[in-house]
């Protein structure tokens, strides 16, 4: 068993057949290489059999040195200590002559499963990972909560689809999710996938949403470059309203309600003391006013926007292991159409149809209080009956200890003087 560089074919086959993050893929490797990032595919082989695989990047730091980073890697069985030790002992030897100051490792390994109130549901039994990293000279970077512009989020909201069908998944959702999904399906909403040359449509929704909710979004280059290199492994669904179908659907609702009103009025004529019929009439008339408003809105939108009205879009990474909802945005003026709910439901079904067992709603802060900056997002994901995956976090090891010590001291000084 030995540490070695891997061919793209070896790396691709291993990460496709072993659970891995979209950053640990051949698509991401080719992206990094084209961007000019110093990137290596390394791993462990036992004879001809690959036992571990990792995409690792080297980034300049303090001009002279480099920082090594494995984003959600390496991909391996962390319970196999021999593979683990062979990899990390070999990695240190590999990085040292490349002027690497320190390495940051971010394993895609779950520590605990929780509900969206923070209650622990299951311990994954991965405590041994901390001992193994410590034995290799790594220091754990802490059990972080919140968002960081550089370090990967330590909390994901994930829906396990294994052994489930659409009916079961829908039944497991809360009433708001069920209602909005059914409403979107009924009232003329459709989905198509945007191509690379249409990505500005998605970007407009994201910019509008980030401004409204005051969060910092990734730049255009990020989304464009990933779609370019990941190809069909990035899907950008756009949901739009067919306004002709929408007004026809609302008109059918109106006609059905008018019949209900007429029936209730006849019941009241037969028995003027029928308080139940009287109450029905009042309720039906309130509903009728609401429907008439929707019908008027639909006709006005048709005149303004034409037959199709785009209302929301999202950005997904697809791997053999999971469908990852990276980001999404909607037009706030048309949120009542529930387009974002239809996108989620469509992509959940995409995962089912392609035999993918995990639907990853992606990052949350890990703060489960009502004061959390993403409290609304957490409640949205909670409603789909997802669980929270808490990951083990990052591990750091100095490769050049004196240089790393000096770097830490310099970083501390810069923070103190506000630079």
Structure keywords:
single chain; 419 residues; alpha+beta; 10-stranded mixed beta sheet; 8-stranded mixed beta sheet; 13 helices; elongated
Describe the overall structure.
This protein has 419 residues and is an alpha+beta fold. Helix content is 44%, strand content 25%. The strands form two sheets. Strands 7, 8, 10, 11, 12, 13, 14, 15, 16 and 17 form a ten-stranded mixed beta sheet that branches. A hairpin with a 2-residue loop joins strand 2 and strand 3 (49-61).
| Structural class estimated from helices and strands | alpha+beta
Mean pLDDT: 94
Counting copies of identical and different chains, the oligomeric state is single chain
Helix content: 40-55%
The shape is elongated
User: What is the CA-based Rg, rounded?
Assistant: 26 Å
- In total, how many beta strands? 18
Low-pLDDT segments:
none
Biggest pleated sheet:
10 strands, mixed
Beta-strand residue percentage: 25-35%
- C-alpha termini separation: 46 Å
SS field, number of helical segments: 13
């Amino acid at each position: 068993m030995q540490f070695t560089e891997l061919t793209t074919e070896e790396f691709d086959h291993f990460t496709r057949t072993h659970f891995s993050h979209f950053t640990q893929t051949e698509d991401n490797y080719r992206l990094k290489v084209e961007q000019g990032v110093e990137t290596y595919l390394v791993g462990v082989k036992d004879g001809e059999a690959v036992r571990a695989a990792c995409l690792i990047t080297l980034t300049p730091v303090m001009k002279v040195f480099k920082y090594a980073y494995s984003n959600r890697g390496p991909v391996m069985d962390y319970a196999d200590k021999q593979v683990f030790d062979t990899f990390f002992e070999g990695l240190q030897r590999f990085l040292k002559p490349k002027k690497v100051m320190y390495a940051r490792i971010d394993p895609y390994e779950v520590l605990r499963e929780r509900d969206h109130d923070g209650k622990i549901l299951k311990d994954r039994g991965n405590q041994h990972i901390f001992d193994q990293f410590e034995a290799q000279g790594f220091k754990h970077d802490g059990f972080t909560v919140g968002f960081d512009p550089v370090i990967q989020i330590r909390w994901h909201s994930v829906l396990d689809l294994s052994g489930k069908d659409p009916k079961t998944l829908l039944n497991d959702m809360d009433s708001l999710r069920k209602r909005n999904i059914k409403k979107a399906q009924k009232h003329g909403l459709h989905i198509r996938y945007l191509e690379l040359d249409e990505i500005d449509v998605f970007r407009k929704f994201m910019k509008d949403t980030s401004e409204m909710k005051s969060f910092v979004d990734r730049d255009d280059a990020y989304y464009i470059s990933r779609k370019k290199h990941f190809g069909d492994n990035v899907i950008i669904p756009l949901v739009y309203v067919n306004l002709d179908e929408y007004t026809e659907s609302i008109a059918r609702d109106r006609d059905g309600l008018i019949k209900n009103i007429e029936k209730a009025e006849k019941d009241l004529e037969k028995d003027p003391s029928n308080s139940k019929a009287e109450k029905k009439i009042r309720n039906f008339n309130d509903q009728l006013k609401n429907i008439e408003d929707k019908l008027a809105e639909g006709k006005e939108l048709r005149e303004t926007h034409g037959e199709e009205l785009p209302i929301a879009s999202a950005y997904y990474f697809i791997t053999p292991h999971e469908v990852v909802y990276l980001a999404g945005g909607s037009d706030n003026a048309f949120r009542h159409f529930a387009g974002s709910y239809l996108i989620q439901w469509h992509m959940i079904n995409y995962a089912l149809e392609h035999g993918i067992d995990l639907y990853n709603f992606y990052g949350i802060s890990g703060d489960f209080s009502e004061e959390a900056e993403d409290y609304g997002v957490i409640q949205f994901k909670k409603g789909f009956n997802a669980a929270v995956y808490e990951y083990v976090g990052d591990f750091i090891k100095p490769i050049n200890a004196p240089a790393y010590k000096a770097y830490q001291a310099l970083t501390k000084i810069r923070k103190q003087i506000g630079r």
